[in-house]
Amino acid sequence: MAKIIFFDTETTGNEQKDFLCQIAYKSDDESFTGLYKPEIKIPPAASAVHHITNKMVADKPSFKESADAKKIKELFEDENSVVVAHNAPFDLMIIKKEGIEPANFICTLRVARHLDKENKIEQYKLQFLRYFLDIEIDATAHDALGDVLVLEKLFERLKNKIISEDNLNEEKAIEKMIEISSHPSLLRTFNFGKHVGKKIEDVLKTNRDYLEWLLAEKLKSDQMDEDWIYTLKYHLKK
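The structure assignment produced for this chain is given below.
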């Protein structure tokens, strides 16, 4: 049976230029959290989210120089390990900069979106899903370990839904979650902008130029937008 490792990172921002300043993980009965000095300064906007300041990490080593790096790399990269994160492509990009490339991963955001066939969920952010699904847990939002505890509960809900809907055992359900996570999601509706709430396929019929413009913006953005780029290319047949 695969070893499931729930993890989360706190960073200097949400773009490809950003770096790790905290990592937390939980596996079986073991939990861990560590603070590190990132390669760039933590901007106030990031501190406002996770409350980690430059003063807090001033005397910390970088992750690569820390005593934790070797253990975490071995744990995450073990062929029997499956790392689980919410919006995993971003977290995987961040830890890749630290020399860690897990063999197997599950993205709970992509799995949640996949299971929401009727598009009942307004957004798929971790804390939104926490309250939308009535996940009761004592955990601090936007703290790496707090988010990991919510992530673990969300994973169980999603896994059980797949087991129930597809009549699978736990091992097969995890395999399906890995498969869903391995490719970008095909989005169904806009959750922002002037077309919020509208189906993307409907906007294509009336305002193709907007989709063309949005794709160009996403392609030149420094943010991780794999799902939107995939969706827009799909609808524009590019």
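Interim note for the steering committee: DSSP finds eleven helices and five strands in the chain. The two ends are 40 Å apart (CA to CA).
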